[in-house]
Each structure stands twice: as structure tokens, then as C-alpha cells.
Design brief:
By secondary structure, the protein is of the alpha/beta class. The chain has 26 helices and 24 strands. The protein binds iron/sulfur cluster. One of its GO terms (biological process) is cellular respiration.
Length: about 700
């Protein structure tokens, strides 16, 4: 039997595992971990191992464009030409009447870099709006801002191989054992081989990640800054700081040290609910480490003080000089497979391509010249939550949603539903009819999925890899890049006539020349021939750059890193609203991905947990007279959810957990966790506050 094989990259999380996908004469697909890939060395987690079933089962696929002229009408099949003519006519008419900022694009960290680049070029360069944002805003925008503020640019300084060289790893607000499993397997192997390596985990839940932890800091949600500052104070008091590094490589920051000196350790321990001796032990582990790393994800980022949390954690590295050496540095994990690629090409309302700065007039001019347009809009565009606010208020008239499912994934999702109903025109470009957002579309465009198109992605350690096709898209589905170029041409824009998607990548690559993110040494051809590379890769023979800042020359104007002066330390937790004393936190399950449009199709992945369950400490459940598996109603200021109770001694008393994945089940919207979640956002990053919502709970 003849078999065709391609090397590609897993389409789920930011770990970026290499996959060998094979197809036989009968069209049967199989996937295995690529043994030569530097990230996973042949390993795959449960989600990656089952990707062939997701691709093979096409029962949910969107196969042809569909349109309706009025929301009360059913969607009807149309030709691509008719769909494009309508999209262009409606966008043109809205823009002519209300200006370019009356339209917006909401895209995804699962888009390929080339697709991200094109939609940014289209919106910022040609339509003339910065209203292009992404679900990465919900994922890691707080880390982007903290890196930029402290290191001078949005730059992850470390690699996975550093995890195997560290002798103290502090995991904060992340459960990599479930959510980034393959890199956690590497950490576990490192700990097994080197039992003296210290692992500290800070999390209100005792997750599987804690299984190899030497110290679990079970803090009260929202008190992260207090905890990190308390550790910093203890490092300071015990002389475990690097005065030479602070003097030579950081900008003077009196305010930060003043804040540290004001800290009363005993009070801080009480505020964050962590025993004082554990704070002291954490400082001892960190301060005694030759190489110290931190690793974090949504527990820090998804907060109304997300940037401060990131800043307070990165401060620990500047205080101890633990950056730019093997096994040392701050490591923000990306949740999605190409959140990093999106950041590279300026895929957010506040960014420009190749790490150029939107607020910088000469950067805007440079990009405008590159694209052959007069100018780029100066003011930042609407971010994810702002976009839906603006749709609801009528300021934004049309939205184009690509590869994301906001009616399940956004916070305070009832408002998102109201906003989409109010919008004049909604385009949904997706692969799956399971995406609940399709229900609100005026125009549905069927897209090609994983293994059906070509393009690049960048994983959490800045590693760029090429994804190659093995199958044709079903029906009339087309690659997202084709769809975007077709729309641009129908809008009358020049500059979107590429022979193939590798030309799009080449165009982006030229834009990076001479920058800190220079990838002029890369092309689709090189990636196909030689495998993946970590940027910067400035020449065709450059091997890539695993670690940055070895010379301690940061990307700030002064070349010095900056401490982050935190202010939320003094604010403490907000008071709960009347009758809503429990703190709800949300997150992923081991075997599910986002809103389950793909993993939800695989029965063996549902075996791990097939329905949303409310994790609650048995003592809290007893007080509420809730039995295990009993149906409960959970209410916040924003909405209601019903879920069955799951007793768990692993969760802190006073805190409850619901998984993020489920939308409507059995046609009821009451299983959707984001009915409940807080719609507040971080003032710097505009990232929502998913990890902290006060709720009440009662038997139903
Ligand atoms: Fe895919 Fe992430 Fe699992 Fe690797 S760890 S196989 S990238 S889901």
C-alpha cells in the first residue's frame, strides 16, 4: 500500500510538537510524534495523538459559502463569487458611511502566521483601521506588555532546553502537566534525573503539576503580586539578591525597592493565604539556585492586574540576576499554537508587524511605505472585549470572525451574544459548523483546516516551523490566506496577488530585516528542508537563537532591564458582592481544547471528563448542603450556569473551578462557564479577568 507522509506541527497548544502525518491509498490518516523534532522527540499528548480522528471526521465541516439577507432567514448556499461580492459591498458601504473604524476583524492564535500577516495588512494598511484583534488577547497579552515594559520588547528570552538545565523552577498560575504536557514530561525527566532540582508551584488548586513539586503555594486567587513581592522581600532581607546585576544591568527603580521595604511578611502571608514559612522556603530555593526559571500561563495573564502579576514575577529574575544564562529566565507559556506568530506580525489592535510600535510615527511610516500605502492609522484599535462592547453600542457595525468561537470563549458571553445580534453584518470564517458563533453569521465562509493548507507557526520558545498539507480541503473550503486575498481584491486593493503563500511569508520576512526579530534567514523552502528554527535567524546559514540576553544588553533605550513597580499590592482583593462569597476560577481540562469544536468530536478524549463539573472543596459543599454529583446553580453578576458538583480536596476552600470548554449542551446555554465570568480587563493589556469572579452556589 502506498503511503504519503508530511512533517508538520501539532495544531493545538503552544508547545509546538512535531508530527509525522501519513495518508494511505484508502485516504486513512495516521499521526505519530516526530522522533527527530527538537521539541517533543517523538512524544505526543492525548490531544495530539488523536488529531487524525479530528481531520478524518468531516461530518461537521462547513463545505460551501452560505449567506442570508436577513437574520430571520435561514443561511443559504451561495457561490464564492457571490459571497465575496456581498462581503465587499457591505464592508464598502459601511466604511463609506461610517468610516474605517466601523468595521473590525476578530481572529485567532490558531491562524497561521501568513494569515495573520494578511489580515493585518488588509485592516491596518488598506482599510485603514487598527480594529484587528485576536483571541490571543484572552491568552497572553499581559505577558506581551510586561516583557515589553521590562525587557524592551515582547521577547521570550529562554528555550525548553533551559528547563532541563535549571535547578529551581517556579511554576505560577499554570498546570503544564495537563495544558502543556510534552514540555512537562521533559521537566519530569529532568527532576527524576536530578532530584535536587527544586520545583515550586503556586496555584489555588493542587493540580497534577504539583505531583513533582517540592513546594506548593496554595494561594488565594488574585493575591499573586502580594506573594511574589513577599518572596522578593525575603530574598532582599536574606541577601540573596545580585547587587552587581542590579547596578550594571537594570534602570534605577527606587519605587520598587520602596514597595519591597514596606512589606510586612507576616501580613503578606495572611493576605495571600500561604504559610510564612513556605514563603521563606520559596525564597531559599530561589535564592540558592545557580539557575532559576519561572514558567507561567493563564493564572497570571487572565487577570485585571495581569501585567502587574507578570511584572512582579519577572522582578524576581532582575533581583537575582537570573536571566540570560543556561537554565535561567522568565518563560511565559503560550496557550495557542501560533499566539507567538501572531505577535510577530503585529496581530493585535495595539501592535505593528516585526515588533514595530504603533505609537511610533516613524515605525508607522516605515510599514506604510513597505505596503505602498499613504499612512497607517495612529490610534490603537478595539481590543477583543472592546470590539464586542462597540458592536453592542452600535459604534462598530461589522465584524469578521476568523477561526475562533467568541460566543463560548469570551468573558461575560451573554453580552457577546447581544452584540452579535445587534451587529449589522457578521462574517464567520471557520472549518466547523460546531462553532456556535456560526448561528449569528450573515455570511459563513468555509475554511481549510490543519493538514489542508500551508503556512508557518511559532511556538512558545520562538521556534518557527512549517505546516504542510496532506489532504485537499473538503467541498469548496479554501485556505484562509486565499479567502483574505480574494476579499482584498474584491475591495479593489492592490498588493494581494501572491502566487502562493510562501510569497506572503517572504514579504513578512523582508519586513524583519535588521530588527530584533530578524528572520531574513528563513523561507518556506529552508523550513521544509532543514526543520524548525528559533528566531532571530538573520542569515540563510544562521542556526537560530535558543537564548537571548546572554550579554545582558536588553532591548530598552538604555540597554538596561526595568523593574516593574506594582501598585495592586496595596489594593488587596475586591469585596465580594452581597451573597456571592465564592471565587470562581476557570481553566482547561487535560483532554479538551478551547470550545471543543475539534476535541469534542473524539469520543476517547471525552472519556476523561464528558461534562462540565464544578470542583468544590467538600467542606464548602457540606456547608451548602450539596452532595457529590448533585446539580447546582452558580450565579455571578453576569449570568447563571448549572453544573454537577465534584468534590475535590485539591481545591482551596472558598474557591471553585469550572472548565472553560463547554458551550451550549442539549440546547441549553446554562452549561457555558463564560455566562459567569467577569468582564473587567487589565488596564495595560486589556486582557480579561477570567480567573476571578465572585459567585453564589445553591442546590438546583
Ligand atoms: Fe499538541 Fe501541545 Fe500535546 Fe504537543 S503538548 S501534542 S503541541 S497539544
Amino acid at each position: 500500500m502506498r503511503t504519503t507522509q508530511v512533517k508538520t506541527t501539532c495544531s493545538y497548544c503552544g508547545v509546538g510538537c512535531g508530527i509525522i502525518a501519513s495518508s494511505n491509498d484508502r485516504g486513512q490518516l495516521s499521526v505519530t510524534g516526530d522522533p527527530d523534532h527538537p521539541v517533543n522527540k517523538g512524544m505526543l499528548c492525548s490531544k495530539g495523538r488523536n488529531l487524525n480522528y479530528v481531520v478524518q471526521d468531516q461530518t461537521d465541516r462547513l463545505l460551501y459559502p452560505q449567506m442570508r439577507l436577513h437574520r430571520s432567514h435561514p443561511l443559504q448556499r451561495v457561490t464564492w463569487e457571490k459571497a465575496m461580492l456581498r462581503a465587499a459591498a457591505v464592508f464598502r458601504s459601511i466604511i463609506d458611511k461610517h468610516g474605517p473604524d466601523s468595521v473590525g476583524f476578530y481572529v485567532s492564535g490558531q491562524c497561521l502566521t501568513e494569515e495573520y500577516y494578511l489580515v493585518n495588512k488588509l485592516a491596518k494598511g488598506f482599510i485603514g483601521t487598527n480594529n484587528i484583534d485576536t483571541n490571543s488577547r484572552l491568552c497572553m497579552s499581559s505577558a506581551v506588555i510586561a516583557y515589553a515594559k521590562m525587557l524592551g520588547e515582547d521577547t521570550v528570552p529562554v528555550s525548553y532546553e533551559d528547563l532541563e538545565q535549571t535547578d529551581c523552577l517556579f511554576v505560577a498560575g499554570a498546570n503544564p502537566a495537563w495544558c502543556h504536557p510534552i514540555i512537562w514530561r521533559r521537566v519530569e525527566a529532568h527532576k527524576t534525573a536530578n532530584p535536587q532540582v527544586k520545583i515550586i508551584v503556586a496555584d489555588p488548586r493542587k493540580t497534577d503539576t504539583c505531583a513533582i513539586a517540592d513546594l506548593h503555594l496554595q494561594l488565594i486567587p488574585g493575591t499573586d503580586v502580594i506573594l511574589y513581592n513577599a518572596i522578593a522581600r525575603r530574598l532582599y532581607d536574606t541577601g540573596r539578591i545580585d547587587k552587581g546585576f542590579i547596578r550594571d544591568h537594570t534602570e534605577a527603580e527606587e519605587n520598587y525597592f520602596r514597595i519591597l521595604k514596606d512589606i510586612n511578611l507576616r501580613k503578606a502571608a495572611k493576605q495571600c493565604g500561604v504559610p510564612l514559612n513556605d514563603i521563606k522556603l520559596a525564597a531559599e530555593y530561589i535564592g540558592n539556585a545557580k539557575a532559576f526559571m519561572t514558567m507561567w500561563a493563564m493564572g497570571l495573564n487572565q487577570s485585571k492586574v495581569g501585567v502587574e502579576k507578570n511584572g512582579a514575577l519577572i522582578n524576581l529574575h532582575l533581583l537575582t540576576g537570573q536571566i540570560g544564562r543556561p537554565g535561567a529566565g522568565p518563560f511565559s507559556l503560550t496557550g495557542q499554537p501560533n499566539a507567538m506568530g501572531g505577535r510577530e506580525v503585529g496581530g493585535m489592535a495595539s501592535l505593528l508587524a516585526a515588533h514595530r510600535v504603533l505609537a511610533n510615527a516613524s515605525h508607522r511610516d516605515e510599514i506604510a511605505r513597505f505596503w505602498g500605502v499613504d499612512s497607517l492609522p495612529e490610534h490603537p484599535g478595539l481590543t477583543a472585549t472592546q470590539m464586542f462592547d462597540a458592536l453592542e453600542s452600535g459604534k462598530l457595525k461589522a465584524v469578521w470572525v476568523i477561526c475562533t468561537n467568541p460566543v463560548v470563549s469570551m468573558p461575560n458571553v451573554n453580552q457577546v451574544v447581544r452584540a452579535l445580534k445587534k451587529a449589522k453584518f457578521v462574517v464567520v470564517q471557520d472549518i466547523s459548523a460546531r462553532a456556535e458563533t456560526v448561528e449569528y453569521a450573515d455570511l459563513v465562509l468555509p475554511a481549510a483546516g490543519w493538514l489542508e493548507k500551508t503556512g508557518t507557526m511559532t511556538n512558545a520558545e520562538r521556534r518557527v516551523s512549517l505546516l504542510q498539507p496532506l489532504a485537499s480541503p473538503p467541498g469548496e473550503a479554501r485556505p484562509d490566506a486565499d479567502i483574505l486575498c480574494d476579499f482584498a481584491r474584491h475591495m479593489g486593493f492592490t498588493g494581494f496577488s501572491y502566487q502562493n503563500v510562501s510569497e506572503v511569508y517572504d514579504e513578512y520576512v523582508r519586513m524583519t530585516a535588521g530588527t530584533n526579530i530578524d528572520v531574513t534567514g528563513l523561507s518556506h523552502q529552508r523550513l521544509k528542508k532543514e526543520g524548525s528554527f528559533q528566531w532571530p535567524v538573520p542569515t540563510p546559514d544562521h542556526p537560530g537563537t535558543p537564548r537571548l540576553f546572554g550579554d545582558h544588553q536588553f532591548y530598552t533605550n538604555t540597554r538596561r532591564a526595568r523593574f516593574f513597580s506594582t501598585s495592586s499590592q496595596r489594593q488587596g482583593l475586591p469585596a465580594p458582592p452581597e451573597g456571592k462569597p465564592y471565587i470562581l476560577t476557570t481553566g482547561r481540562l487535560r483532554d479538551q481544547w478551547h470550545t471543543m469544536t475539534r476535541t469534542g468530536k473524539v469520543s476517547r478524549l471525552l472519556r476523561h471528563q464528558s461534562r462540565p463539573l464544578l470542583e468544590i472543596h467538600p467542606v464548602d459543599a457540606f456547608e451548602l448542603e450539596l452532595a457529590d454529583d448533585q446539580l447546582a446553580e452558580i450565579t455571578s453578576e453576569y449570568g447563571v450556569v448549572r453544573a454537577r458538583i465534584k468534590y475535590s480536596k485539591a481545591i482551596r476552600k472558598g474557591v471553585v473551578f469550572l472548565p472553560m470548554h463547554w458551550g451550549k449542551t442539549l440546547n441549553s446555554p446554562l452549561t457555558r462557564v463564560n455566562n459567569l465570568t467577569d468582564d473587567k480587563i487589565d488596564p495595560y493589556s486589556k486582557q480579561p479577568n477570567f480567573k476571578f469572579t465572585y459567585v453564589s452556589i445553591r442546590p438546583y
